[in-house]
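Archive entry. Fields below.
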Amino acid sequence: MGETVLEIRHLSKAFGSNSVLKDIDFTVEKGDVISIIGASGSGKSTLLRCINLLETPTGGEILYHGRDVAGRGVNAPEYRSHVGMVFQSFNLFSNMTVLENCMVGQTKVLKKSKEEARENAMRYLTKVGMAPYINARPRQISGGQKQRVAIARALAMEPEVLLFDEPTSALDPEMVGEVLAVMQDLAHEGMTMLVVTHEMAFARDVSSRVVYMNEGVICEQGSPAEVFGNPQQPETKEFLARFRQN
Amino acid sequence: MDRLVQLFADIAKLWQGYGASYLTGMRNTLVLALIGTLIGCIIGFICGVLNTIPYTKRDSLAKRGVLGFIRGLVRVYVEVFRGTPMVLQAVFLYYGLPYFTNNTVRFTDIWSAAILVVSINTGAYMAESVRGGIISIDPGQAEGAKAIGMNHWQTMTNVILPQALRNILPQIGNNFIINVKDTSVMFIIGFPDFFAAHRAAVGASYLYFPSATVEMAAYLTMTLVASFLLRWVEKRLDGADSYELVNADPLVMTAGTYSHPHKGSPTDEYSKEFRENLKNAMKNRNFDKRGER
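PREDICTED_STRUCTURE:
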């Protein structure tokens, strides 16, 4: 097994009295592609947002290379520059062109030169097939294209882990494929990825591990073959059965 | 009819006597409104940005205390200067400062006093506009910026403020136009603006209505030109609505422009290409008005 990148220990999150995550434990190793599945409201997205510190966990630890990042006095921006995130709603900067979107993090956060940032951005934009659109603004391109740019923007920071928060849920069915194809390429190249998804085929075929969440706890986890082929928990069986029906 | 002729004659007479003072008045009004709006915007931006620095329960007590104090201070400033007439603020500051400092702090020239009053007044309005502009930006924009490692300051300057500025530009224009008109109250501290020119002119000539007509027309002209210019600036800031495809891969599409959504494209009925196609189609119908069946 590879080196441990992220270790989540006893993580919990409550919004007021509403407990969304309860005692979550799992580790992410280099090269892992982990799919997090589960019904809406089971805490999948909150887990991902906690890992990126967009939400502040109410308890537990998030260890990044053995260093707790969830506590006080942590340089959250510095940590986030190593952990990229792709959102359901893209969140491309609407005041910038496609190219500027992919450059701004490199020049402002990583302090790279303009030329270097541009070259790097072009490399990743070419990878996701968006190089021809560098002068377009986010409002001028389609949803699938936006999400591919968002992936390129995250990649341009050269993160160690990439978090995907339902990257295809806001897309029209015909655009889901182009985004999943990019993600599949990344997985094959050994990128460490955490993917919250409702695309069961992606979870089954691409990921190295599947985590099923139910009501704020990890109900079951294992290889796709184990979880999809031979689910142990009744909740997992029921959840997967619903997907098989439709 | 002869009243109108009389009016024009009176205006001509006024212009001959006081044309120069009207023109300097207009210049002073415009300069004061412009500088006051600019400084007011800067004040507004500083207040708006200070007012929206986020803090959570996890932050240290000192940070929360300082930020809470700043918010309170800005709030008081906004409420006081938004809730009192500018004409009173002018009197209050112009005579108040020497009064309280025993004449050690006083305004040596009327310009600095007028600019100060207009700026703080505009700043109070702009502070709220900027705050509104900032909180109106989709929180996803800030999350996207945070997710690539930007801190609050970088997020603000690179992502939020440019978008907020675009959104509050109509407000800035609004304030400028209001300032063009409302600087007329600065005559109270003796500022030689356009309205002061009116007072001087009628004081000597007693041509109240003709001078007011001149004032009305000129104020309207100034504000119309200003709003026209602002629309133009807004349009420029929005950028082009089409973009160049930078193409290396001929399979994707031939190099050219893709317009959004249909502007200038062959399917756009206002495009040259569409009209030409239409014209050719009409020509090739052999003059049969019903077309081919």
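CURATOR_NOTE: The radius of gyration of chain A is 18 Å.
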